[in-house]
Specification:
The chain has 387 residues and is α/β, with parallel strands linked by helices. Helix content is 49%, strand content 15%. It has helices spanning 12-22, 38-48, 58-67, 78-87, 104-112, 122-139, 148-157, 162-168, 186-189, 194-197, 207-215, 217-229, 268-276, 290-293, 307-318, 322-338, 346-357, 366-386; strands at 2-7, 27-34, 52-55, 74-77, 93-96, 116-119, 142-145, 169-176, 237-241, 247-253, 258-262. The strands form two sheets. A seven-stranded parallel β-sheet has the order 4-3-2-1-5-6-7, with helices on both faces. The longest helix is centred in the C-terminal third of the chain and has 21 residues, at 366-386. The chain is globular. The protein starts with a strand and ends with a helix.
Length: 387
């Protein structure tokens, strides 16, 4: 019986994880962590009877505690509560699906505790990947990717024995849907509204990741994440726009062969695989019918129009604290765009200026990473007020 902790249980990944749990006979929900949606969290507590639940907001946690007083679930709150859940010894697997930089410390706690870290929070590895990998190495834990693209790469790499991978894998190829504005010019993007940017053609995701998909920053963060996950340099990671989102990613081998993982645009498959690896269990939902799909297309990404992807490669080249700075500034810029305080194209402009101002800290510790994130957020906000 697997004992599972889900951090981010009320979000898209969290709710789909619970659907996977419902279809399984051998997964017990040990703990749930959520942000502010205590109505849904209460429903989850009553349905899955976790030992612990945590709410990021302390006042809402107090409110929830009253609502579920008739249950045996202990209610915790704040970042300390999330960190406790991640490292709590009663669970062996942690789904890390907290959005943004806030997921770093809990993910690090799970890694230090030797858990299976099923990672759906790319910002964790973008900001502090070296620390997480070191913690896993020291604790004997393991990390399995949940993002569909990284899960696809992970599955493709399973075909190559570990001792031969470095010599035989030429490059990783991440696929990108292109978001809702693929093919548009910079002029056509100048008056984009948040409402338009939130209409993703293929995936149902949270607001932040959907905006990142529209700017191609999501793919940039995935390049940075893949470099950490698979221990390769960013120049060995390519991106191709594949609007149908059927091929989730590929690897190219030195002899020219390309291995790909295909499936319908549904996160439940990579979630289930992260939980059950190395085994595969039956899943009846959303089977892929290639005859119905018909055509698969591929294009080069337009990094001159969608500059965030190019900025991610620049951050990878600079290394150290630069990816963390890029991520922190992006979280602020996306929030400002959603509040209609800056324009769509301003996101990339702010990120570039923040990166230009940053003095990289080499071999950063956790304190340095937290400080770099704080500085990047303040600088992005300052620059937004000047534009």
């Amino acid at each position: 019986m697997m004992n599972l902790t889900i951090l981010g249980s009320t979000g898209s990944i969290g709710t789909q994880t619970l659907e996977v749990v419902e279809a399984s006979d051998n997964i017990k929900v040990r703990a749930l962590g959520a942000g502010r949606n205590i109505k849904l969290l209460e429903e989850q507590i009553r349905a899955f009877h976790p030992r612990y639940a945590c709410v990021a907001d302390e006042k809402l946690a107090a409110e929830l505690k009253v609502k579920v007083a008739d249950t045996e679930t202990e209610i915790l709150s704040g970042p300390e509560g999330m960190e406790f859940l991640a490292g709590e010894p009663g669970s062996d697997t942690v789904i890390a699906a907290i959005v943004g930089f806030a997921g770093l410390v809990p993910s690090l706690a799970a890694a230090k505790a030797g858990k299976r870290l099923a990672l759906a929070n790319k910002e964790t590895l973008v900001s502090g990947g070296d620390l997480v990998r070191q913690a896993l190495s020291e604790s004997g834990g393991e990390m399995i990717p949940v993002d569909s693209e990284h899960s696809a790469v992970f599955q493709c790499l399973e075909a190559i024995p570990v001792p031969r991978r470095e010599a035989e894998v030429k490059q990783i190829i991440l696929t990108a849907s292109g978001g809702p504005f693929a093919g548009r010019t910079r002029k056509e993007l100048s008056d984009i509204t948040p409402e338009a940017a939130l209409k993703h053609p293929n995936w149902d995701m949270g607001a932040k990741i959907t905006i990142d998909s529209a700017t191609l920053m999501n793919k940039g963060l995935e390049v940075l994440e893949a470099a950490q996950l698979f221990c390769v340099s960013a120049d060995k990671i390519g991106v191709v726009v594949h609007r149908q989102s059927i091929i989730h990613s590929m690897i190219e081998l030195v002899d020219g062969a390309v291995l790909a993982q295909l499936g319908v645009p549904d996160m439940k498959l990579p979630i289930q695989y992260a939980l059950t690896y190395p085994e595969r269990l039956p899943m009846q939902d959303n089977r892929l019918n290639l005859a119905q799909v018909g055509t698969l297309t591929f294009e080069e990404p337009d990094t001159k129009t969608f500059r965030c992807l190019a900025l991610a490669y620049e951050a990878a080249k600079a290394g150290h604290t630069m990816p963390c700075v890029l991520n922190g500034a992006n979280e602020v810029a996306v929030s400002l765009f959603l509040q209609k305080k800056i324009g769509f194209l301003d996101i990339a402009e702010i990120l570039e200026r923040v990166m230009q101002s940053h003095k990289v800290v080499e071999r950063p510790e956790l304190f340095d990473i937290i400080e770099a994130d704080r500085w990047a957020r303040e600088e992005a906000l300052r620059l937004s007020q000047l534009s």
